[in-house]
Design goal:
The structure is a homodimer of 433-residue chains.
Chain A (H helix, E strand, L loop, with lengths): L4 H9 L13 H5 L3 E2 L12 H15 L4 H4 L5 H13 L6 E4 L2 H19 L5 E5 L4 H14 L2 E5 L12 E7 L11 H10 L3 E5 L23 E4 L13 E5 L1 H10 L37 H19 L2 H23 L5 E3 L11 E6 L3 H10 L2 E2 L1 E3 L3 E5 L7 H16 L16
Parallel strand pairs in A: 1-11, 3-4, 3-5, 5-6, 6-7
Antiparallel strand pairs in A: 2-8, 7-8, 9-10, 10-13, 12-13
Helix pairs in contact in A: 1-13, 3-10, 5-10, 6-7, 11-13
Chain lengths: 433, 433
């Protein structure tokens, strides 16, 4: 039976995670009758953020000034936030840092992975990546492969495993595809790569904060991934352009400690002793070598507020409960669209199996995806369009309600049924983020 | 005659730039009786910043959400702020971008410079840098030289010009040395490098906003520098860790346009059409190829407020007036310290000639620099210590008053005369930023 709006209100009433929505500034969203299904692009504003940012601006910067680097903990903010993200990734304290952008961090860790390969298996010359991953990752991999004499192989996602042979240096993969929402099985792929003798670099931009990531698998050494990066402004709710996170397998950082190696973005904060101002670079131990320049403190402070919401989530049922809600929300959306919008030209792109998708659902529409999304946005349902023909809807489990799903589909159905998306003003193409 | 406090109050009363101080939140500084001589490390909080950041947080992020990328101009913020910085560097609109950190930007432009050399003068294999420049710059140069098969030559600042021969690919130089305050003559050095066939990369971290920088010299082609980077959180008052700026000679970007080349940090925002999500990287035209990942919008918004203060400065007398005040402030400080603190072991490190120094003054003290600075800070004069023996004082001309200089020296004299810096608690060493 297709669920009714009342059913959805009942689901919300019985949702033990429902109180988490109060951790976000939803008043201005509600005042616009907005249904925000784009938390996979930019998460909502956490309630704690405005006051915290203001304290950093007026108190820590304006009043305490330069002293804040020590006295207000700016020097260690990258590590402190990293330690709060670590449990979301299934890794330990000291293993995650926040700095720079996802692309810059990917450059760092892929460089490190290629350097390790050059030392251990110099005949491995291939980097395998999914050709449908977010292009920035492919651009960075291409750039590094050219520089370092490796070859980038773009594979279809179904053939990733079959590409892993003794020529492969590194497999670089985004766990949840930004367009389709397809989720890779991390442990299985990490293990397969390791059995083939390759290292694995994961991009967790659409994973962290949506479901429990297990970079260490079940703990067997071969299940532990090698490097990971991810985005701070999607499910982590860090604000527009929030700094990104970076993780490295401690076995690699320990080895880099022994061999005194760093990564090429050797800025001063990655130095063993930045305030000695030595002319020669000595990489810091453990993760600190993955720092580069001075981080943007205001944006870091906002990111910390976003990450802090997960403390409340952990208290209310943990990451598994979050994941269950994500599956329930996305499943409900698929059911409702397929029943209520049948015959309107929408085709499900996201995998139907709940363990094969992230916290988003995508439908393709051959000719009208852009215009339909514009018309839907006009009706205050915010999703986004991804070229060439994808309607993308994200369901951040921290704050999305079941009734939001119902109302969104109701408005989508209206747009499709009345064909209002065929209005010329909706087909005018412009940049959409 | 040594100036009296009354003389200094009179200088302030007659200072046509004095109204600029009102553009900063000085109340909390004054409430602490703080004399802030560290604007060369972290600029004061501009008065407009708190409200603007709050509007970006609550309005643009919290209310407008993802739509802000287009509707509130986030997509073009890097360019918009760059255009406001351009006049401070003597360059035109479209030539400056704000993104990432100074170190990351240096990596981008030095990569580009080395690539141009490889194409034009493959036998040039040396990169010359000043061994006393901020270490982060040396670390980045060292890293790139190793990767690209160049050799980094660290020279003393007096021998820079004599090092320029037909083996030199790039001269990388910070215009104002972070420790000594020594200012290089930009046009003369740029011309000398070009005559020797080398490219010049300038770091303007301690220049931009302190005096008029002329990257294009007097306009002759050989006077125009090649690349530049610089810091947003010093004299530009962008807030802690504010994003950095980057400039390239338009002749180079035009050539890179023709040859379709980019720089290795090839993130999606540097792509010609980021929202086409193409698997192949096509560098954007002109400066846009120097963008990488998504920029931290909250920190960018704060930086814009800092840069906007210069609009008021331009109206009150321009960059030359700012430079004159900087010279007057630093000259006064030198005079007062040398007369009132004579015999106390302080030696002037900064050049005495006003056209050879930036907006800071440094004294060395053989054994006690760290303890003296701690004792001075205890008396609410904020300067900083730079290893191994430097007391560093910055005089941001936008907000520093002549009477501040007098009061600072008065307190410094007390610390030295009473030997209170010999108190054991002041010699305890910790990280100082």
């Amino acid at each position: 039976m297709t669920k009714t709006r009342t059913d959805c209100l009942n689901l919300d009433a019985n949702d033990r995670l429902a109180p988490l929505r109060a951790h976000f500034m939803t008043e201005s969203v509600d005042a616009q009758s907005l249904i925000y299904l784009d938390g996979n692009s930019l998460g909502l504003l956490p309630r704690a953020t405005p006051a915290r940012v203001q304290e950093v601006v007026q108190g820590e910067w304006g009043r305490d000034l330069i002293r804040s680097w020590n006295e207000n903990g700016w020097m260690t903010l990258s590590q402190r936030i990293g330690d709060k993200i670590a449990p979301l990734l299934g890794v330990g304290p000291g293993e995650v840092l926040v700095a720079d952008s996802t692309s810059v961090n990917l450059y760092k860790v892929l460089s490190a992975a290629l350097a390790l390969t050059k030392a251990d298996a110099p005949r491995r010359r291939l980097v395998v990546a999914d050709r449908t991953d977010f292009p920035s990752d492919l651009y960075i991999a291409d750039s590094l492969c050219r520089e370092r004499g490796f070859e980038l192989v773009l594979a279809d996602d179904q053939e990733i495993l079959s590409r892993l042979d003794d020529r492969v240096a590194v497999l670089q993969l985004t766990q949840v595809n930004y367009r389709t929402g397809r989720r890779h099985r991390m442990s299985e792929i990490t293990r397969a790569a390791h059995r083939a003798g390759a290292l694995v670099v994961w991009d967790l931009s659409h994973s962290a904060g949506a479901f429990p990531v297990k970079l260490k698998g079940e703990g067997a050494a071969e299940d532990v991934a090698d490097f990971a990066v991810g985005c701070g402004y999607k499910y982590l709710n860090g604000g527009p352009g929030a700094p990104a996170f970076v993780w490295a397998n401690p076995a690699h950082t320990q080895r880099m400690d022994r061999e005194h190696t760093g990564q090429p973005l050797s800025g001063w904060l990655g130095h063993e002793a930045p305030f000695e101002f030595e002319p020669d670079y000595r990489p810091g131990t453990s993760m600190s070598r993955f720092l580069c320049g001075t981080p943007p403190i205001l944006s870091l402070a906002a990111l910390e507020c976003g990450v802090d919401v997960f403390q409340a989530a952990l208290a209310l049922g943990g990451l598994n409960a979050l994941c269950e809600k994500s599956i329930a929300l996305t499943g409900l959306f698929i059911d409702l669209v397929e029943s209520r919008c049948a015959g309107q030209g929408l085709t499900l792109v996201t995998p139907r199996r709940s363990d094969e998708r992230g916290s988003q659902v995508c439908f393709s529409h051959e000719s009208g995806a852009f215009a339909i999304m514009k018309a839907v946005i006009e009706r205050n349902v915010i999703g986004d369009f991804r070229a060439p023909n994808i309607l993308r809807f994200g369901f951040a489990p921290l704050y999305t309600r079941f009734v939001d799903v119902w109302d969104a589909v109701d408005r989508l159905e209206t747009v499709l049924r009345t064909s209002e998306w065929r209005d010329a003003r909706f087909s005018l193409r412009e940049a959409v983020t």
